[in-house]
From TrEMBL:
The gene is mtlD. It catalyses: D-mannitol 1-phosphate + NAD(+) = beta-D-fructose 6-phosphate + NADH + H(+). PANTHER family: ALTRONATE OXIDOREDUCTASE-RELATED (PTHR30524:SF0), MANNITOL-1-PHOSPHATE 5-DEHYDROGENASE (PTHR30524). Keywords: NAD, Oxidoreductase. Belongs to the mannitol dehydrogenase family. Its EC number is 1.1.1.17. One of its GO terms (biological process) is mannitol catabolic process. This is Mannitol-1-phosphate 5-dehydrogenase.
Amino acid sequence: MKAVHFGAGNIGRGFVGLLLHDAGYEVVFADVNAELIDALNAAPSYEVHEVGDGGSDRTVTGYRAVNSATNENELIAEIQTADVVTTAVGPNILKFVAPVIARALALRDSGLPPLAVMACENAINATDLLRTEIQSSVAPEQWEALAPRAVFANTAVDRIVPGQDPAAGIDVTVEAFYEWVIESGPFGDALPEIPGATFVDALGPYIERKLFTVNTGHATAAYYGFAAGIDKISDVLANSGVADAVRHVLEETSALLVVKHGIDAEVQREYREKILTRFANPHLPDTVQRVGRQPLRKLSRNERFISPAAELAERGLSHTALLDAIGKALGFEVADDEQSTEMQGLLAELSAEEFVERVSGLAPEHPLYAGLVAVVREHQK
Ligand SMILES: NC(=O)c1ccc[n+]([C@@H]2O[C@H](COP(=O)([O-])OP(=O)(O)OC[C@H]3O[C@@H](n4cnc5c(N)ncnc54)[C@H](O)[C@@H]3O)[C@@H](O)[C@H]2O)c1
Ligand SMILES: O=P(O)(O)OC[C@@H](O)[C@@H](O)[C@H](O)[C@H](O)CO
């Protein structure tokens, strides 16, 4: 079995690549980082260090790596005969990896089983987005021929993999916890063999629970931590004021998840307590800069703040802690985070109403709109 994985970064090496390797796949990493590709190809193995309770050291072997920026033909040949394609490049990058997948599908032997394509990004229905990008990269009549050659399944991935110490080379430090949930429907009876993954009929509740608990809580900690001048995420959680703010936010998103998806309130309470423990893992060198990265993406309509806050507002439920966290997000500014500087520019140039419409995509008639405008206006004072 062969898997081609786009994005040999933190989650690519520390989670998706590891689980595919454990499942018996020959893993081919594709990345645009030439130095990383060379380092992977120069070593016969790399280590995944799981830190915290229950962690152990794991070794990944039998992989190879292709530079997708310079070796497109080699990559196409690999995808043509692969069983699985996964991505962990960031949702905004999917449009760049789509054309090469389309070209490989066009050359794929139609007698082969369909290629299983799964985007492992922090976004709702990221694989649907990837499929749309692949489809729009070819002519409509060509898509009819290509579509049966692939199966597209959405997934939810959860493992905290911080930025890595450059001195560690290609080895990766990760938390011990992981969860990979994949929708089963698209595969019919032919589920990919990935023992470390859980296949479910309906992914919606899983991805929303993950994004609106783990990622909403994480981003809240990052933006409050940044405002307080704290660098390490575990130190942020040690600040009782910030820890309370994160708890309040997660109580609000939990109320939505319980009412919307019928998740048991006690089960959800335990889930969020476990997540707070994960954030506080002192062995994990995670930073507010990484967790808060790309704030414009995080403040967009279907993401971890606006989506739950909008639905809470629509249902007449409390969302004040989320609005406070959004206010903190507006203060995020990190020199090498382009979106954070772009956001500061927008805050300086646009009215509060224009900023809300541009960034969150909410219309003036939405019940969250006025509250959001007030938060932005307060920040601009
Ligand atoms: N790190 C985590 O804790 C974590 C956990 C769950 C999900 N995720 C999600 O996984 C994705 C990747 O996150 P990460 O933390 O691993 O980021 P990362 O920056 O460590 O890795 C991304 C990799 O993608 C590569 N890349 C960029 N453009 C590319 C292209 N056009 N083709 C091929 N490779 C390309 C980069 O060079 C980099 O190596 C994001 O969507 C993130 O939300 C991350
Ligand atoms: O990757 P992002 O930028 O969407 O979010 C940053 C972190 O919250 C995220 O990477 C978490 O570590 C991860 O989602 C845990 O499963």
